[in-house]
Amino acid sequence: MSGEPDSIFDTNPVVLPQGGPLYLQLKRWIEDAIHRGAIKPGDALPSERDLALKADVSRVTVRKAVQHLVQDGVLIQRHGSGTFVAPQSQRVEQSLSHLTSFTEDMARRGMSVRSVWLEKGIYIPSPEETVTLGLSSGDMVARLGRLRLSNDVPMAIERAALSARILPDPQVVQNSLYTHLEKSGNRPIRAIQRIRAANLGERDAKLLDVAPGSASLNIERISYLASGRVIEFTRSIYRGDTYDFVAELRLGETLRQTGTANE
Ligand code: 16G
To answer: pLDDT by residue (tens digit) across 33-48?
Structure first.
């Protein structure tokens, strides 16, 4: 941890930005202190009592400001040890036009990759897995559930399902699923991805090290082999504060022709 415990009060006496309810003024003041580096990621926030005293507001006002900052993911509260400035997560820009793996995406940025296994085994498929993966009756499914970390920051929870005919022994996947599929000649060449916004429940928020209710991007990827067969059905939950998905858009063929005709 860095910074003197009281360096947040370097503008003593505290002058709150004007406008709006007091708790919002205090919230903005704390955010500003973080932006100007007076209090850094990992630092403990001064006590409720100290903040109330120095900012000349009630402890209820402090509590309300802090609650909102926790909800926004700016601060984190650890039971028994206090309130801290949340670790800064690097935002990652991810192109939506390339079919790459998590390992490749992070390696390209020079970031380390680590996974915590949540589930790895062969199961009876759910009706949804049977339909999506095009399984026949009696077929089993290989499931790989992982918490994916980059530079030790939890980025996503990923649950992949593949036919057990393709992946009869999921234990062989140690690091990259796509590297394994590549080796066995089953790397997907095309995928359809569906992205929707959501809010994290208690369990997923804990895994991703953010406050419950924080924003997430839930992504469903269905990947295909060149033969048209579905190879992978993966659901991922990305932290909303770490990922920007970027798509390149081009003028449609019809519009381009119309444009030329009108010139
Ligand atoms: C990406 C894919 C996921 C795939 C994984 C393989 C998205 C949204 N998801 O995270 O579908 O299973 O890469 O990564 O991009 P790996 O080869 O590192 O295991």
So the answer is: 887 888 888 889 999 9
How confident is the model at residue 11, as a pLDDT? 63
Task: List, for residues 57-79, the tens digit of each pLDDT value.
Answer: 999 999 999 998 887 778 888 77
> From the CA of 101, how far away is ligand 1's center (Å)?
4
Task: Tell which one of 114, 146, 221 to mutate to probe ligand 1, the residue whose CB is within 8 A of the most ligand atoms.
Answer: 221
Residue 7 carries which DSSP code?
G
Q: Which residues fall within 8 angstroms of residue 134, CB to CB, at 6 or more apart? A: 229, 230
Question: To test the ligand 1 pocket, which listed residue (146, 155, 177, 182) has its Cβ within 8 A of the most ligand atoms?
Answer: 177
Q: What is the mean pLDDT of residues 131-157?
A: 95
pTM over 0.90: no
Cα four-point dihedral sign 44, 49, 52, 54: negative
Q: What is the spatial distance between Cα 92 and Cα 83, in angstroms, rounded to a whole number?
A: 26
- 76-89 residue pLDDT tens: 887 778 898 887 66
pLDDT of residue 1: 42
Using a 6 Å CB cutoff, which residues line ligand 1?
Answer: 101-103, 158, 160, 176-179, 219, 221, 232, 234, 236
Q: Exposed, middle or buried, 48 (CB in 10 Å: 0-12/13-18/19+)?
A: middle
Give the distance (Å) from ligand 1 centre to CA of residue 210: 22
Which residues touch 28 (CB under 8 Å, ≥6 apart)? 16, 17
Distance 196 CA to ligand 1 centre (A): 17
